[in-house]
UniProtKB/TrEMBL annotation:
Subcellular location: Cell membrane
Keywords: Cell membrane, Membrane, Transmembrane, Transmembrane helix
Organism name: Streptomyces fuscus
TM segment ranges: 56-85, 134-158, 165-184, 217-234, 246-266, 312-335
Membrane topology, as annotated: Multi-pass membrane protein
Matches recorded under InterPro entries: DUF318, UPF0718
UniProt protein name: Permease
Amino acid sequence: MATPTRPRPSQKKPKPTNPTDRTDRTPLTLITVLILAVLVQNPLRGALSSPVMQTWTTVFVAVVVQAMPFLVLGVLLSAAIAVFVPPSFFTRALPTRPSLAVPVAGAAGAVLPGCECASVPVTGALIRRGVPPAAALAFLLSAPAINPVVLTATAVAFPDTPEMVLARLVASLLVSCAMGWLWLRLGRTDWLRPPTHPSHEGKPRAAAFWDSVRHDVLHAGGFLILGAMAAATLKAAVPESWLSDLAANPWAAVVALGILAVVLSLCSEADAFVAASLTHFSLTARLAFLVVGPMVDLKLIAMQAGTFGRSFALRFAPTTFLLALAISTATGTVLL
């Protein structure tokens, strides 16, 4: 006896999307935006013509226009280093003794450009290929801080203070080497979790290069815009008496700009122009801003935690911050 067949539940076919729907909505959206622009043009014109907004716009545009070419150049160079230079090159170039490898790796940052976004995966590749962690961490801190693009941008941003370039180079190199030696002395292997896969595995070099360029331009460019907005707001909206009172205390000024560098999370190719706009503060305080920023900021802490583990980031970032403040203050007192 044949078993009765159960009726199959009716399956609703997905409603086909009409590509003209989006096209039809586009003019409506544009018309709505235009109507809103017409309605608010008088209040908007009045707000933009105020002295505060004119100052804000001037500072914002100046910072972005001056910094953007260096940011793009730095991204192109760092992508080329990350994709086309084999990690084995660094292993052959470093001394076998870790204590000597630390300053060599730190000095390598002066000739191997890379922004902080690129230095984290490059450092992971170095550790994975056998470079001592202390030397790799020295490179992690020095590469975004003392590479040629950053030093050139600093010279352009401080045309009347050429000694700022030397002070940034010396202070950043001292911090990177000190952190490398400190890790060599006190660091533990269970604090550091190196990544297990290279960043560009399985991709053609050209595709990996342009992927890295697109990612870093969008990522670093976004932080540049936010940093320029913050600098312009600080310049235009904060009363000068507040900034003068804060800048009058040398120690408070150094700590304040160090914390500001952590919060703004600027790309190292662009931070010199923001520092140059903070004219209320001393050169030493602005040096602290330039030394701390490429080594410790919110995006770097997040990237380090995701790449090397939370235990590493919670120990490495605060120690680097305090050491950077101390060394930049000492260097600024001597050289500036």
